Amino acid sequence: MSSEIQLSLFNEESNFAQKELIPTDAKIPVPPGTYTNLTELAQHCNQCQRCELGSTRTHAVVGRGNLKAPIMIIGEAPGQNEDETGLPFVGRSGQLLDKILASVNLTTEQDVYIANINKCRPPNNRVPTPNEMAACLPYLLEQIRLVDPKIILLTGATAVKGLTGDKRGITKIRGQWLEWAGRLCMPIFHPSYLLRNPSKEPNSPKWLMWQDIQTVRAKYDEIRTSN
Ligand code: SF4
């Protein structure tokens, strides 16, 4: 074995030895394979102080839905309802998201797992800072590894930026398939944006969302029949 390989093994072991320190400091790496299940990950998130959002949260909001879902939806960060309940997308936005999914026969019991870029609520629902997103990203990467979805939907520009680094506006890229880390991703509008834009006229945000969710359903069916 070369000394380089021996050294890298040593590093990996030392990372795992620091596992209990992960929630304490954003500089502690989170190597792939750190968590064997989402319960372990949630325990870390609920004691985490890797960024300042940890000091004001009521509950860390990790995820809801089928833990082995073929579709994963990733939002920005919890709001007040989510902070209080510990579940993502449970307010008006969440109800609309569930309706959108139901319109193409998708459910969180079977097909979908929902998570956020940041697990803790930013004060006054502000957008998480780049440092806060970077501090929380390793947890999300572990969630994606454990759920192993075939399709990832990113709701809104912050979710796209937080996961892929793509800074383009959501109206430019929504409805397009992107490849990230070998996975099929689609940016879509955030349901809260649809609540602020209720028109259903052709080319309105709601109308575009209806096109996008049908495209997602068709791709999901295609993947299922090819497997
Ligand atoms: S937002 Fe993420 S990184 Fe920041 S304290 Fe909460 S769990 Fe930790």
TrEMBL record:
Record SMART domains: UDG, UreE_C
Alphabetic keyword roster: 4Fe-4S, DNA damage, DNA repair, Hydrolase, Iron, Iron-sulfur, Metal-binding
Catalytic reactions of this protein: Hydrolyzes single-stranded DNA or mismatched double-stranded DNA and polynucleotides, releasing free uracil
Domain Uracil-DNA glycosylase-like: 62-214
Enzyme class: hydrolase
EC number(s) recorded for this UniProt protein: 3.2.2.27
Entries under InterPro entries matching the protein: UDG_Type-4/5 (IPR051536), Ura-DNA_glyco_family4 (IPR005273), Uracil-DNA_glycosylase-like (IPR005122), Uracil-DNA_glycosylase-like_sf (IPR036895)
Organism domain of life: Bacteria
Pfam families: UDG
UniProt-listed SUPFAM superfamilies: Uracil-DNA glycosylase-like (SSF52141)
Family, similarity comment: Belongs to the uracil-DNA glycosylase (UDG) superfamily. Type 4 (UDGa) family.
PANTHER family, A to Z: TYPE-4 URACIL-DNA GLYCOSYLASE, TYPE-5 URACIL-DNA GLYCOSYLASE
Protein name: Type-4 uracil-DNA glycosylase
Species for this entry: Anabaena azotica FACHB-119
